[in-house]
Amino acid sequence: MASRTRAEALTRERIVEAAVALLDADGEHGLTFRTLTERLATGPGAIYWHVANKGELLTAATDSVIANALTTEAVASSPEDEIRAVALGLFEAIERHPWLSPQLALQLSRRPWGSVTPRIFESVGQRVSALGVPQDTWFTATSALVHYIFGAAAQNAANSRALGSGVDRAEFLRAAANAWEELDPGEYPFLRSIAGEARDHDDREQFLTGVDLILAGIAGAGPGESPRP
After folding, report:
1. pLDDT > 80? residue 31
2. What angle do CA 192, 194, 195 make, to 5 degrees?
3. pLDDT of 226 strictly over 90
4. Largest CB tally within 10 Å, which of 87, 157, 197, 214?
5. How far from 74 is each of 53, 88, 126, CA to CA, in Å?
């Protein structure tokens, strides 16, 4: 009876919160039931009462972070603004939690019927449907937004991890832009032309500009028009 009481006192929410903290600190390899029991000062039986295995725990941690990211303040004045807010919330969540991107890829590709994929598509899709575009474009439009959000956010997070904490990103971008400007103008005219923009760009502004470009394309599919085959 005492063990049952302790297991019930240790809530699933506390376990997931501790798991997220361990994942943030040491990645997936740092999350074990041993490290989790040590952090929660409990026994493995109390954790197994709520979570069957590590896979279920990773899914629960992913779902928790995504649920928080999708909770936007009720200040948006239009579906477009709400989509931007949702996109930025997901972008920042992936930036804060380095382990999140591979987990999202796993959930989206292997478990589209799980809790994570429906939550994401419902949040973005409701706002796409509110844009007033034809219903037969909703799936494609929502998929384009979701794939862009996670692709761009994952690349941004990977860039930050690759540079490491000791590298100044602004200096890194300046060095890359300077190198591009020195390329052969006959072979690399485009890359030379955008070097200055690459040097001065802001990651979040660039990300949101990409969202706006997709929204502009969605808006172009007005009433009575069909999506491109």
Report:
1. yes
2. 65
3. no
4. 87
5. 37, 15, 15
Do 10 and 50 touch, CB atoms closer than 8 A? yes
**Farthest CA pair distance, the chain:** 79
pLDDT, tens only, 167-181? 677 788 888 899 999
Q: Which residue shows structure tokens 């040097």?
A: 199
Distance of alpha carbon 183 from alpha carbon 177, whole angstroms? 10
CA–CA distance from 7 to each of 154, 197, 210 (Å)?
36, 56, 47
Tokens of 122: 């419902």
In whole angstroms, give the CA distance from residue 199 to residue 140.
Answer: 33
- Least Cα distance to 176 among 197, 153, 199 occurs for 199
pLDDT band of 80, cuts 50, 70, 90: very high
